[in-house]
Amino acid sequence: MDYLQKAYCMNQSVRIYAAITTEMTSYAQNIFNMWPSSADAFGRLLTISSIMSATYKANETLNIIVKGDGPIGKMTVEARDCKVRGFVSNPGVFLQNTNGTINITKAVGAGEIEIIKDLHMRAPFSSSCEIIQGDIANDFTYYFAKSEQIPSSVGLGVSIDPETNKIIASGGFLIQIMPGCKDEYITKLEEKLSSLKPTTEMIKEGYTPLDIINEITDGDYVLLETKELKYECNCSKDRFKNGLKSLGKVELENILNEDHKVDITCNFCNKKYTFDENELKEIILEL
């Protein structure tokens, strides 16, 4: 089970979220048949998206879009109540650094991150910032500082088996400095982060969210809550049926006469829905 744990440290002036997301990233890799660079980048985006959703109220929705000019193209994630779903424009990307490690910065490229928040107000709120590195972690650290004015640190990691190219571990953390945090606490935290193991190394070694929090705080923390994380798509045949109705009677009659059926594949989970000739006729009669 993927899950997240939230804690306070340094006299409740620092908030930490840590998560293991191996199941959701593995699931996404499998349904989209993602190659290593795409799987690594998208896994990191799924992780930070699920963590961010835990910072919002119930039913508030985040749409997070990473629009890079690298070969991966656009990555999109929808997050709500610690459930995520998403897709990648090009799942078939595998670039390597000179030392043989997976290159995601080049795969993502330059561009911008856009986040649209539906907080059940009059209209959704949108904010954005440029992609500064393409590794997702530093990009979101920059996003929090620039767009939300919250001093933060993001660590993300995906471990992929070099033999099978399959994800074996995924996870990360988000640290946020609360208003009024003492300078001495910030200095101590910066020193700790400078010597912290790489996130990919921690999750590959089997660190739990609590292990990550313990590593960052040297055991000086107060655990607040634990939440389950999940990749979940809410698509259904009825939803796509309503979409077909929006095409109008004339267009549906043309499809019926020419193709006799409609095949629709969900972008978010790759599930295929088929509307046969009789079903198309029923939909037309309902218009």
Walk me through this protein's architecture.
The structure is a single chain. This protein is of the alpha+beta class and 287 residues long. The protein folds into two domains: 2-231, Hsp33 domain, CATH 3.55.30; 237-286, CBS domain Like, CATH 3.90.1280.10. It is built from ten helices and twelve strands. A ten-stranded mixed beta sheet has the order 7-6-3-4-5-10-1-2-9-8, with helices on both faces. A two-stranded antiparallel ribbon has the order 11-12. A hairpin with a 6-residue loop joins strand 8 and strand 9 (167-177). The longest helix has 18 residues, at 36-53. The model has no long low-confidence stretch (mean pLDDT 93).
Notable characteristics:
287 residues, alpha+beta, Hsp33 domain, CBS domain Like, 2 domains, two-stranded antiparallel ribbon, 10 helices
List the SSEs and their pairings:
Elements: E1 2-9, E2 14-20, H1 22-32, H2 36-53, E3 61-68, E4 74-80, E5 83-88, H3 105-108, E6 111-118, E7 125-130, H4 137-147, E8 152-160, E9 167-177, H5 183-195, H6 199-204, H7 209-217, E10 221-231, H8 237-245, H9 249-258, E11 262-265, E12 272-275, H10 277-286
Parallel strand pairs: 5-10
Antiparallel strand pairs: 1-2, 1-10, 2-9, 3-4, 3-6, 4-5, 6-7, 8-9, 11-12
Our measurement of the CA-to-CA distance between the termini, rounded to an integer number of angstroms, reads: 44 Å
**Which fold name fills CATH's third level, the topology of the largest domain?**
Hsp33 domain
What percent of residues adopt helix (DSSP H or I)? Answer: 25-40%
Extract low-pLDDT stretches. none
Number of separate domains? 2
Rg from C-alpha positions? 21 Å
CATH architecture of the largest domain: 3-Layer(bab) Sandwich
CATH superfamily of the largest domain: Hsp33 domain
Name the structural class: alpha+beta
- How do the strands line up in the largest sheet? 7-6-3-4-5-10-1-2-9-8
Report the total helices: 10
Order of helices and strands: EEHHEEEHEEHEEHHHEHHEEH
Number of distinct beta strands:
12
Q: Calculate the mean pLDDT score and round it.
A: 93
Main sheet characteristics: 10 strands, mixed
Globally, the shape reads: globular
Strand residue content: 25-35%
- What's the CATH class label of the largest domain? Alpha Beta
